[in-house]
Amino acid sequence: LIDGHNDIPDAIRERGGLDSVDFAVSQPKLMTDIPKLRAGAVGGQFWAAYVPVTTMDSGPHPAVYALEQIDLIKRLCARYPRDLAMAYSAADVERNFRAGKVSCLIGIEGGHAIENSLGALRMFAALGVRYITLTHWRSLSWATASTDTARRGLSAFGRDVVREMNRVGILVDLSHVNDGTMSDALHATRAPVMFSHSSARALAHHSRDVPDSILRLVPANGGIVMVNFNPAFVSEAVRVYEDSLEPRARALRAAGTDSAAIADSVKAWRARAPKATLQQVADHIDYLRRVVGVDHVGLGSDFDGITEVPVGLEDVSKFPDLIAELLRRGWSEEDVRKVAGLNALRVLRAAERVAAEMRKGRG
Q1: Which residues are catalytic?
Q2: Mean pLDDT along residues 196-220
Q3: Which of 227, 250, 274 is at the close of a domain?
Q4: How do residues 281-321 score in pLDDT, each as one tens digit?
């Protein structure tokens, strides 16, 4: 099983770094640790080198923050060599799997990490980065985020970024971008794209999910949509309820309610919120299979990057329960294996092949 997105690097960083978290033993306050990875039958994990958009304004430069996250991922993997091993290619993942180790793959979350430099992009590739999410929640000069109401997509430089990512073998990750950027990237790329942690907008009308108009472009591209477990991306009821919280809090502020009372009210409202379920995650997988085909669906949990989880998918140890639900629905073992990891391996291989062809063509 290969998961497209897990934020444990930043969760560890927030807790003081590698010396503050023993990843080899159960960590009740985290969704991920080695015992849970083993229980979840995880064979490969894209660890997110998450770069906060606040680095665009102050503090460490985005590129420095990304380098520190990559360093943390590599040191995490090296610290537990019995269970973890770095992977930079599909062949590495398969070799590590045969050796009984969980592959550590690197994805940068936030294209601001390259600081508008194709040279920086190439250096990230040299460090082993295998995907870059073009934006996080804030738009860039060359790509537009899903939170932005602007109708623009990729700029000319953004298309250059996509083509250079193709050339150096970094997958273009379209989670977090708006529909225009999704479409532009799909038309600009020569390699398959990925949505490392996004679900189907037809089932939960969240801007972070993928609309049918974009999904229909994915099969011809050869890409993959990896279903996110964030409850608001999975359940329309949860999304609507969450969207109602800010207006309620705003009304209390306008009425002069003190901040402590507002915080208590929001906490009480959240406690009454509807819950997403494992079955709804399976609904998204079912839906994507119908729209894009089983060869283009994967899993992108977003564990340790989300604060709420679906009932039945509380942490990485629960992946087998999701697989069991698909089998219960009549999925063949072959199709389940594709969604669990074979599709992700195919996309990795295809990106490697395109990169080799482009480099050869350039001489």
Answers
A1: 5, 7, 109, 136, 176, 197, 302
A2: 98
A3: 274
A4: 999 999 999 999 999 999 999 999 999 999 999 999 999 99
Residue entry with tokens 């099969």: 219
Give Cα 190 distance to the centre of its chain. Answer: 21
Q: Read off the pTM.
A: 0.95
For residues 77, 197, 54, 170, the Cα torsion angle rounded to the nearest 10 degrees is: 60
pLDDT in tens, 151-168: 899 999 999 999 999 999
Structural domain range at position 269 = 236-274
> Looking at residue 103, what DSSP letter applies?
E
- The number of residues in the chain equals 363
- The answer to whether 278 and 311 are in contact (CB under 8 A) is yes
Question: 333 and 254, same structural domain?
Answer: no
User: Residue 12: CB partners within 8 Å, gap ≥ 6?
Assistant: 18, 20, 21, 23, 72, 76
Number of domains the chain is built from? 2
Kindly give, in sequence order, each residue whose CB lies less than 8 Å from that of residue 288, ignoring residues fewer than 6 positions away: 200, 215, 225, 227, 296, 297
For residue 157, which of 98, 204, 114 has the smallest C-alpha distance? 114
CA distance 44 to 31: 16
Q: Find the helix packing angle between 319-328 and 278-292, rounded to 10°.
A: 60
Nearest by Cα to 61 from 117, 99, 13: 117
Start-end of H helices in the chain:
8-14, 34-39, 62-79, 90-98, 118-126, 156-168, 179-188, 212-215, 218-221, 231-234, 236-254, 259-271, 278-292, 319-328, 333-337, 343-362
- Does 77 share its domain with 152? yes
312: left (phi over 0), alpha (psi -120 to 50) or beta: left
